[in-house]
Amino acid sequence: MYVIVVGGGKVGYYLTKELLAAGHELVLLEKDGRRARQIADEVGSIVLNRDGCEGKHLEEAGAKRAAIVAAVTGDDEDNLVVCQMAKHHFDVPRTIARVNNPRNEELFRHLGVDEIISPTRMALAAIEQDIPVHELLHLAQLEGGELELIEAQIGEDSPAIGRRPMDIDLPEGCTLFVLIRDDSAQQIRPDTVFQVGDKVLAISRTECETDLHRQLIGDTRAGTYAG
Amino acid sequence: MRTIIVGCGRVGAHLAGRLVREGDEVTVMDLRTEAFDRLDDDFPGQAVRGDGTDEDALRRAGAEGADRFFALTEGDNRNILAAQLASERFSIATVVAKINDPVRAEAYAALGLATICRTAMMTESLAAFLGVAADKAAMKVQTPTGRHDHGGELAASITED
To answer: pTM of the prediction?
Structure first.
């Protein structure tokens, strides 16, 4: 498969090496002469010191027979133009653009870019995954730190949904005492049934937290988030 | 008429001055505030520092509801992105992008963008001056020669923030 990579920065460089190792036929276009020579010294004559945004250079690089054009420079506008020229001027079947501004993703797809690589979006997703949505919130320490006042929000994954306090296998030394529902606080009674969105105030021994977390929030994420 | 000009170079500044005299409400954008020195001292329009290829920056500059949009920075690709944001994102009726690479200019005219190409204009002007057969049409703004079907309206699918 013939691939044209535009942009010899870090992404383009490693992409080129990986594609070569996988046995693909390819050409890398890099407009900076020094950078192009530097990469050529390592991977050979497949590096062209050309600006891939110029139609003429894309054509010289064989855009008409390329199966894929991957535009991975650091500039969104350059990547867009490379892909649009490839797609609409040279009928390249598949175009890939690196996009830094997440707001550009939808527009680029709309304008004919087949595949979007978004480092910003990927980092964002990874970070969001690590920030717990529903976690135990430490409100106060009691008795010199042995006990803690904790708030737990009953999320959709909570095993406590539809259950009463007696159905919940609470760890020893842990009490649920107040429920906040619809912005009002009520005492937790034996006939209270937990619902999604409930906030439960509990007093727990520090070492019971993991257990409490499992019962009220679910198994998905252990640990606490000191909010 | 409300006009947005991205890129306050010689052409951008000059056009801005011309349009305000015609009674246009003009906003000029540039990444560098020094660029605004090119505007007339008594320029009554707005000068907004910002990236004309950034949707949020364009919105801040008032692209929403503008009637005319000119992408006149030094970079062909920046102009191409800015112009496509203007037409696809903000549905501005009259959009012109300066594209100095004749190949790209022609390709984007075929994709539905009105383009102006300094290379072609100057070459043809000089050819005409020398009495060599010149392509008169290339001296003007190239109106779109085609329209790329993107498959649906983009602007309609965007939720305002």
So the answer is: 0.72
